[in-house]
Specification:
CATH topology of the largest domain: Rossmann fold
Shape: elongated
Number of domains: 2
Order of helices and strands: EEEEEEEEEEEEEEEHHEHEHEHEHEHEEH
Helix content: 10-25%
CATH class of the largest domain: Alpha Beta
CATH superfamily of the largest domain: Alpha/Beta hydrolase fold, catalytic domain
Largest sheet: 8 strands, mixed
Number of strands: 22
Structural class: alpha/beta
CATH architecture of the largest domain: 3-Layer(aba) Sandwich
Radius of gyration: 23 Å
Oligomer: single chain
Length: 418
């Protein structure tokens, strides 16, 4: 029996198994390696070794066992990281990401976790002199997009919270040597996860959705390099102590979360004039909660389908935050977080109060549009695909139409328009 490594790819739905890297017993030639010589079977299991039963979609009538065959798209000799070679001691298998069993994550509104993806790769035709190989021993899990992410826990004694963070290029990784160049202070993008990404594993916070887009080249280039900070809630940010999705507008994590943020900012090379906070749904709720509680701390906010009920926001709160640049994102058909009760009236109250740097991309996804956005607007947000305001016209900055993260990168705490 032989070893295979798993490579995760992070897309809009979170981490998926895209490639397997087989540890071959000897070198193989490119001409001998073709996809028809392999068969790939997988079972996704829980921590007890039982095959998971999951609904294939939210509307599916029942849960089904998560096991089956993967579709092989390509096979080739490679190095240990999957880079193609003419001859190599590894073989990389690329699989179809549309396969039912491609996801590495399992879960929903009560939290998500990484399944134990148990593969069995069978060689069904000769490769040179090699025959009948079976690869069923898991080696490493690789995720190139997450290589510079680190997970740890805050030191706030009353309620320590786990968090993950991305170290930008040019800054030392944990344990690395600090040079004069690495002491340059850079902005910090805070991401607050939705209800499905909390829990015990802080990696889910940035791998449950494509939060790694925040550390990708396009957004990093807008920022000139930026830290990404992704705290994890043990339950949900909206938990006011009742451990339910309350509508009180309060959170039991408010003090602990702000203490975490301040601890991170104080111990890393963060530009305090460029701290940006955002998140989706449950995390959008916490975005506004933080801005209301600390209006002078953040340079700007970018909430998506935020869930802070407008009737819990006082006129005094509106007055406090009207000068904080905020760009809302919500879809009209959202059946989970009603924009009419949350972001829409809050936006209108801010505008009426004189807010000059408040924007709202209100996605009209009502029929007869082919694809409904509904609650899931954050892929558009994380992929930086929206650039229009509430009136449907482009958001302008210095005479130029800008996307959300271009706009965000220009915001400074000490340069707000009064």
């Amino acid at each position: 029996m032989y070893i295979y490594d798993i490579e995760w790819f992070v897309n809009d739905d979170g981490a998926q198994v895209r490639r397997l890297i087989l540890h071959m017993p000897s070198e193989v030639e490119m001409a001998d390696v073709v996809g028809e010589k392999f068969c790939i079977y997988v079972e996704r299991k829980d921590k007890n070794g039982e095959v998971l039963c999951v609904k294939p979609s939210w509307s599916a009538p029942k849960a089904l066992p998560t096991k089956g065959y993967r579709t092989l798209l390509a096979a080739y000799p490679s190095d240990e990281k999957g880079n193609p070679l003419l001859k190599g001691k590894y073989v990389t298998l690329e699989m179809d990401m549309n396969d039912a069993q491609s996801r590495a994550l399992v879960g929903g509104l009560s939290g998500s976790f990484f399944a134990d993806c148990c593969y069995r790769v069978m060689q069904i035709a000769p490769i040179g002199e090699l025959t009948g190989l079976v690869f069923d021993e898991t080696g490493k899990i690789l995720c190139p997009e997450a290589e510079r992410y680190t997970s740890t826990v805050s030191s706030y004694e009353e309620l320590p919270l786990q968090y993950s963070y991305y170290t930008p290029e040019g800054q030392p990784l944990p344990g690395g040597t600090v040079s004069s160049r690495s002491r340059k202070k850079l902005p910090c993008i805070i991401w607050l996860h939705g209800a499905g990404e909390g829990g015990e594993d802080p990696r889910v916070t940035y791998l449950g959705n494509r939060v790694t887009a925040l550390s990708s080249d396009p957004i990093q280039s807008f920022m000139g390099g930026a830290w990404v900070l992704a705290p994890t809630s043990p339950t949900m940010w909206m938990d006011d102590g009742s451990h339910t999705y309350g509508n009180s507008g309060k959170s039991m994590y408010s003090e602990a979360l702000f203490a975490l943020i301040e601890e991170f900012v104080s111990t890393h090379a963060v530009d305090r004039e460029r701290i940006y906070v955002g998140g989706c749904s449950n995390g959008g709720f916490m975005t506004l909660r933080l801005i209301i509680d600390h209006p002078d701390y953040f340079a700007a906010g970018y909430p998506m389908c935020e869930a802070l009920y407008d009737d819990t926001i006082s006129d005094e709160d509106i007055e406090k935050i009207k000068d904080v640049p905020i760009w809302f994102l919500h879809a009209m058909t959202d059946a989970v977080v009603d924009p009419v009760k949350t972001s829409l009236p809050t936006y209108k109250r801010l505008i009426a109060a004189g807010a000059r740097d408040t924007h709202f991309t209100y996605i009209d996804d009502r029929p007869p549009f082919h694809q409904m956005v509904n609650h899931g607007c954050w892929p558009l947000g994380l992929n930086n695909e929206e650039n229009y305001d509430f009136d449907g016209k482009p958001v302008m900055l210095n005479g130029k139409a800008v996307t959300r993260f271009e706009w965000l990168a220009s915001m400074r705490r000490n340069r707000r328009r009064k």
